[in-house]
Specification:
Blueprint: H1 13-16, H2 18-39, H3 42-74, H4 79-110, H5 114-123, H6 125-134, H7 136-155, H8 166-175, H9 181-196, H10 199-226, H11 233-236, H12 241-262, H13 269-292, H14 295-298, H15 302-319, H16 327-360
Helix pairs in contact: 2-3, 2-13, 3-12, 3-13, 3-15, 3-16, 4-5, 4-12, 4-13, 5-6, 7-9, 7-10, 7-12, 7-15, 9-10, 10-12, 15-16
InterPro entries: DUF475 (IPR007427)
Pfam families: DUF475
Protein name: DUF475 domain-containing protein
Length: 361
């Protein structure tokens, strides 16, 4: 079956980041203006400017694997739904997850209205940050479980025939014939980590993790039902609205860590929104570039590195319910895995090219 067309034509790599550069300039200017309004000093303005830049880098480092996974899903979607995700989807990602999601947490946790949550963020940022930090455990359990299912589902696939770490991935692919094996592994980890917590925290962890698992399964089922006009369920996953919902929930899960981690740098919701919003635009640009240039096909192990990074991120989110793990470790760990997978792909391509040259001679 022919693959759906991708979004555009050949362009230079920098062209893909044009809007990201524009948003960066606007965002950093807004950050500087906000810093001046908050402090009334050049030092305060420079501090907020710097925090916005650091948050943008943090978001990019934490979400590079998100861009690869998005590209993996998008390359099989129809051009119409590709475009919808990259326009409406990015608006939901930037405004929904970076602004409304933190507000929603405070609305639920504090039992106040949305307007009161905005006023709390503006007038009492310390209290706002405290509520967000108190909600970290259920968020980490929910997001970690969802991402773990995403990663395990990729490796536990009997049709997967390209393996990076051969001895491990080949066994996982063969084990995919055991129905529900990835769910069993996740449930086992949920029980393990819940035993390391005590009292109410353990109960909260279990319930939140189960909700994350149910959300993944619900998105899979709803995606198939919404796109049931396709010939098979496997093809349905490549369809329109169902795949769109899947990508949005996936982006939300990736965003949990960045949003919570941002409060370590600043308690101001609006500074966080600017910094993470800038980073989200680069993730969008990287996604488009990966799809249009066919980078995933060219570098055969890049996808593997991204999904390993997802699995590690999910375990880190679980571990963060027990101890604090600096976000820089999370970001650098994922980036390192992707870098190694890229190097392995380049090495494979060179060896293959050398073999072809020898055969030609």
């Amino acid at each position: 079956m022919s693959q759906p067309a991708t979004l555009g034509t050949d362009k230079s790599s920098l062209t893909y980041f044009r809007w990201a550069f524009i948003v960066t300039a606007i965002g950093l200017i807004l950050g500087a203006v906000l810093g001046w309004q908050i402090s009334g000093t050049l030092d305060g303005m420079a501090t907020v400017f710097f925090i916005c830049a650091v948050l943008a880098v943090l978001e990019i480092s934490l979400s590079f694997d998100n861009a690869i996974v998005n590209a993996n899903k998008l390359k099989d979607m129809t051009p119409v739904w590709q475009q919808r995700f990259l326009t409406w989807g990015i608006l939901i990602a930037v405004f929904g997850m970076r602004i409304f999601f933190p507000l929603l947490i405070v609305v639920i946790a504090a039992g106040i209205g949305p307007i009161d949550a905005v006023l709390l963020a503006a007038r009492e940022p310390a209290e706002y940050a405290r509520i967000m930090n108190d909600a970290h455990l259920p968020i980490a359990a929910f997001g970690g479980t969802f991402l773990m299912m995403v990663g395990l589902t990729y490796f536990f696939d009997h049709e997967k025939d390209i393996h990076w770490i051969e001895w491990l991935e080949s066994h996982m692919a063969r084990s995919a014939s055991i129905k529900g094996i990835e769910i069993a592994l996740v449930l086992l980890l949920i029980l393990l980590f819940s035993n390391l917590l005590e009292g109410e925290e353990a109960t909260t962890f279990v319930y939140s993790a189960i909700y994350g698992l149910l959300t993944f399964l619900a998105v899979e089922v709803i995606g198939g039902l919404l796109d049931a006009s396709q010939k098979t369920l496997a093809e349905a996953a490549k369809g329109g609205l169902g795949a769109f919902i899947y990508l949005e929930v996936l982006d939300a899960s990736f965003s949990f860590d960045g949003v919570i981690g941002a409060f370590a740098l600043t308690q101001n919701l609006f500074i966080i929104a600017i910094g993470l919003g800038i980073g989200a635009m680069y993730v969008r640009s990287m996604t488009i570039m990966l799809v249009e240039k066919g980078t995933l096909a060219e570098y055969r192990y890049l996808e593997h590195g991204a999904f390993y990074a997802i699995l590690i991120l999910s375990v880190i989110m679980y571990c963060q319910t027990l101890v604090h793990i600096p976000e820089v470790i999370t970001g650098l760990g994922g980036a390192a895995l992707i870098g190694v997978s890229l190097w392995s792909s380049i090495r494979f391509n060179r060896l293959e090219l050398a073999q072809e040259s020898r055969h030609a001679d």
